[in-house]
Amino acid sequence: MPDKTNTPAQPASSLNAALDSLQALIKSNAHPELSEMNTLSAAVQKLVSAYTQLKSLELKVREADIKQAEIEERREQLLEAATRPDGLTPETLREIERQLKLL
């Protein structure tokens, strides 16, 4: 399974590099022509769109990780309850069945 912790940094680094290049281009060209301004405007728009998509995906990954951690925690609780010496109560059995249907 790929390492999720490094994934968001790679696109973010690419976006930062593109933004730095764009800023350098703007600074080096004090009087750009209209066509150059249109090109720069399109580049900025694409960068902003990519950044927005990146942040949205990072949020979804974080939410999925939180949900998975909650499922794992609940699974551990259910397993602990199942191994108690007093046995399983009907409520615990129903909860185990309900949790297994969610997976």
List the main descriptive attributes of the protein structure presented here.
103 residues, mainly alpha, 3 helices, 0% strand, single chain, rod-shaped
The succession of helices and strands, N to C, reads HHH
> Structural class per helix/strand content?
mainly alpha
Number of strands: 0
Percent strand equals: under 5%
The residue ranges in which pLDDT falls below 50 over 5 or more consecutive positions are: 1-6
Largest sheet: none
Round the Cα radius of gyration to an integer and report it. Answer: 25 Å
The number of helical segments is 3
Helix content: over 70%
Average per-residue pLDDT, rounded, comes to 80
Label the overall shape. Answer: rod-shaped
Number of domains: 1
- What distance separates the N and C termini? 19 Å
What do these coordinates show?
This protein is mainly alpha-helical and 103 residues long. It has one domain. 80% of the residues lie in helices and 0% in strands. The chain has three helices and no strands. It has helices at residues 9-28, 34-82, 90-102. It is rod-shaped. Residues 1-6 have low confidence and may be disordered.
